[in-house]
Structure formats: C-alpha cells, structure tokens
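User: Modeling request: complex.
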Amino acid sequence: MLKKGVERGEVLRALGEVFRAHGYESASLTLITEATGLGKGSLYHLFPGGKEQMAAEVLAEIDGWFELNIFAPLREADDPARAIAAMVAGVDQYFHSGDRVCLVGMVALGSARDAFAGAVDGYFARWQVALASLLRRSGLSKGQAQRRAEDALLTIQGALVLARARNDAGIFRRALSDLTKRLLAPPDRDLWTG
Amino acid sequence: MLKKGVERGEVLRALGEVFRAHGYESASLTLITEATGLGKGSLYHLFPGGKEQMAAEVLAEIDGWFELNIFAPLREADDPARAIAAMVAGVDQYFHSGDRVCLVGMVALGSARDAFAGAVDGYFARWQVALASLLRRSGLSKGQAQRRAEDALLTIQGALVLARARNDAGIFRRALSDLTKRLLAPPDRDLWTG
DNA sequence: GAGAGATTGTACCGATCGGTACAGAGAGTC
DNA sequence: GACTCTCTGTACCGATCGGTACAATCTCTC
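Assistant: Request completed. Predicted assembly structure:
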C-alpha cells in the first residue's frame, strides 16, 4: 500500500522526469510504469484522470516549487542584487545548470499546449509579475521592469533550448551570468524616459 | 503523377507545417496524409525512409532557407547595422512574428533529439559562426562576438517559447527589437578588455 | 496501342497506444 | 478471524501507430 501523502510527491517527481525526458505525448504508460515502479492499477487509482491528470499535477507541483523558492522570495525581497542572485541560483539549481529541460516550456511548444494553457500561462505570468515588482522597487519604471522581467524569462527558456540543441551546458551558465548583469543594470535612457 | 522536383518542395513545406504543429512524434501518418494530400503509397514512394526521412528532409530544407536568406548574407555583409536589421527582418518573417514555432528547437527538446542531433547542432552552429563573423568585423573581440551571437540565438528561441506559452506575439516583437540594440551596442568594457 | 516504369489507393501487418474491468492481495478495525 | 476498504497486477478493450504488399492506374515512349 502507498504510504499516503508523502509518497505522492515521490510519484510526481518520477512522473516529472518522464515527461521531461520524453515530452507529454511520448511519455507512454509503459514508460510511466517503469519510471514510477507502479502498475496501471495503482496509477489509475492514484490518478483517475489518467495521463492528463498526471501531467496537470506535475505542472502544479512545479508551480508550487517555483512559488515557494522563486516567486515568493522575489516578492518579499528588499535587496534587488541579493534577490536576483538568489533567483538565478535557484534557477540554476532547478535546471541542473542546463541539463534539465523546462517541462512548462516544453508543454507550451507541444500539441498538448491547449490542454494546459492556463497552467502554462499562469506560471510565466506570476514569475514575470514577481520579478517586475522587485525591479520596480529597485527604481525601474513600470514599463522597464516588465520588459526586463520578460527578457529574463525568455532568456532562461532560450538558454535551455539552445543548451540542449547544442549539447553545451556552458550556454546556460553564460546566459544566467549575462542575465544577472542585465537585470541589475541602471535604468535605460530611452526616448521617453531620458 | 507528381511533377518531379518542383512538387517535392511543396510536400516538404506541408510536412514542415505538420511537424511544427504537432511535433515530430505526434505527427502521425494520418495527419501527414491529410496535410499533404498524399496517400501512404505516395508518401513511402517519395520517402522510402518513412517519417524519419521526411523530418530529416524538412530540417535540411529549413537549413537551406536559413543558409540562403540569413547565414550567407551575414557572412558577406559589410555594414553591420544593415546586416543585423536584415537578419532580424528575415527571422521575423520566417517565424511569422512569433506565431510560428521553430521546428529545430522543438526537435531539440523532444525525444527524437538524438536522431537529428547533427542537423540541429549544425544549424545553430553555422548561424552562430556567421553572426559572430559579422560582429567581429564590426569591431568586437572574438570572445564578445561569439557571446553576442550566442545571446542572439538563445533570445530568438526563448522569445518563440515564451510567446507561445503566453500566447502573446508582442513578446517576440519586443525581443527582436531589444536584440537588435544589444547586437549593435558598443563593445562591453569587461575586466579583460577595458 | 502495346509495353515499360513511375505513381498511387487500399488492405493489411504486428506493435503499441491510453484506458477499463476486476479478482484478489494487503492493511486496519472490531 | 471475519469484515472493510484501499490498493494493485493482469488480462483485455478498441483505436491507432508506423510500415509493407501489391494490384491498379497513370504517363510516357516507341
């Protein structure tokens, strides 16, 4: 018997790795039973909604991790430099310095996108808002804070894609380093602000 | 009967759209016959190697398009500002301002990655080299040129992912605009250069 | 118009897909 | 130990997967 509660987290972690490794559509029930060590009986007992529920819960768990370790600290921080360094360190840790792929981004590109559109959009939206609020407190205009936060998210996603495409984790490391500098740079002197 | 040569390009174009819309693994033969208007008989006559050959040829055709319209102009250009503007315009056109996904990046994230690793890496590698060579001619150090070229590729990929995830093509447009500025900025005054 | 070769639709293949049914094993209570 | 209720392995479902076989058809050449 499953030891309630505690173990579900374990299962979700294993599920996450399967989805990351093969993508939502290609993660077959066979692959899933192997990765989790659970037969179909257990799987469908745990997730009556099937694969879709599994993926939804995995996404929710990822969201929870980021909420706790990235978004909330960003919202509550008062020292921008320290907060950004912490975010970058957290991201680097989570993505294993570029070896791990972003399941949320992956889902966004795949054909299962529509089924999880809300979760995907919410994840990025809350990240952007949290980061922008910190940037705003660091003295940036609202527009610039939003733009820089958007730039941060897209840089991380792009670095993950390119690092995987070229099989070079250094790309991710360098991108995070550059990103830190860009986020902490003084406000741009644009046409409408300078 | 197929009108030799000319038509194959048409078929590849349709194939590309199916792969882009569903991903390599989820693009079923049924989907493919619908999109191309070709039955299995024709398909396997045209591509004896099956799905894998289809994808390989689609990737090669994409590569060819970029070689002609992006990489070569980059290598041959003498005016950096103009060349970068042309690249950005070409990219914007190819990706339909963020509405179209990058098949190469998509394959890189999927489980078919290994089968096409060479093509994927080559595509990005030649892009980076071509862009870096232009940047070098514009006065950047070798290292900076390489880094900025890397940044450009990753920005484009990330913008495509985020634009799709958030269903906001504006993200792509803004990213390209920012990217242009970053590429044309004067050399960074880093520890070892300044 | 006969023959050759290229091209195509259709039936079919075994494998696997996600999902269901259900008998029975395991644990908790009395 | 008998009664629950939770949990799980296995057999099975129809559908679909990528791919093959092949006869029929088309286009061209002579």
